[in-house]
Design brief:
286 residues, 51% helix, alpha/beta, 5 strands
């Protein structure tokens, strides 16, 4: 019978931990709710001191025990809250009976664990946010910017052109490379950047959601490059360019101002297809 009991108990614990993991993985809101529940639970441990002799005659001179609310529930709640917020206040329990002193020590120790968990959640949240920024997943909130879709070696010539002959300009680059790869390539190929402010985003230029993430409708001009990050062949790169043009053509605003556009087509036989697919654009692409 004991074996059956322990088997059921282990199953119950495993199920409880599983449900806890599912709840905890829901994100910041679930984690914050859980920490709030734990905080309330800690505070409600305070009234346990009442039946333990919190207001017995031997505790009348203990500094931490208040008497403002009739020596009842709310005084006990305040007592536990003080110990949770300031664990060092356990020193004010000097002279209390053993039961109350042990409860005060437990509250102080649990408060250290609780606030350690809060600090851990905050630091983990900040780390996730920094990782998200490093991955370039956040949307671009810009207007009047130059948008470059795709990546190949010509991008450095374009950046040099605007660096040398243009006023300060925000350039948003969307390609299939990772942010780290693009930064490393720019560091090794370009060096110091003064006038041009590049904003890098990782994603596919043939995906409308990714295009919306780089604010393509608000751009002043768009350059579509043959994207080497999507294919190794010229024909494949041109197919990606044509797909991007089709998306741009079908999702641009119907009224001016619309972005000025230019695209790179590497194989001459694909030029007519690109022009055909871009009839609705504001400028003939070639």
């Amino acid at each position: 019978m004991m074996k059956n009991f322990f088997s059921r108990w282990r199953r119950f614990v495993a199920l409880a931990l599983y449900q806890f993991d599912k709840f905890f993985m829901r994100g910041v809101s679930a984690q914050s709710a859980l920490m709030l529940v734990l905080l309330i639970g800690l505070i409600l441990l305070g009234p346990l001191a009442l039946p333990l002799g919190m207001y017995s005659p031997e505790n009348k001179d203990v500094a931490s025990i208040g008497h403002k609310y009739g020596e009842g529930f709310w005084d006990a709640v305040w007592w536990s809250t003080v110990h949770i917020i300031g664990p060092s206040d356990v020193s004010l329990d000097y002279g209390a009976n053993t039961s109350v002193l042990v409860l005060a020590l437990v509250l102080s120790m649990l408060s250290l664990v609780f606030f350690g968990g809060v600090v851990g959640l905050v630091s983990a949240g900040i780390e996730r946010k920094l990782d998200k920024l490093a991955q370039g997943n956040s949307p671009v909130i810009e207007s009047g910017h130059l948008l470059i879709l795709g990546w190949n070696d010509k991008i450095f010539s374009i950046l040099d052109l605007f660096e040398d002959h243009h006023k300060r300009l925000t350039i948003v680059i969307l390609s299939g490379h990772t942010i780290a790869d693009m930064r490393e390539k720019m560091r090794s190929e370009r060096g110091l950047i003064r006038r041009v402010h590049p904003i890098l985003r990782s994603g596919s230029p043939t995906n409308l959601t990714e295009l919306e993430r780089v604010a393509f409708r608000e751009a002043y001009s768009i350059i579509v490059l043959a994207d080497e990050s999507n294919s190794n062949s010229d024909e494949g790169e041109d197919i990606g360019t044509i797909k991007t043009l089709m998306l741009l053509a079908s999702n641009m605003p119907g009224v001016d101002p619309r972005p000025k556009m230019v695209a790179e087509i590497r194989r001459p036989e694909n030029l007519d297809v690109a022009r055909l697919r871009a009839l609705d654009l504001t400028r003939l692409l070639k």
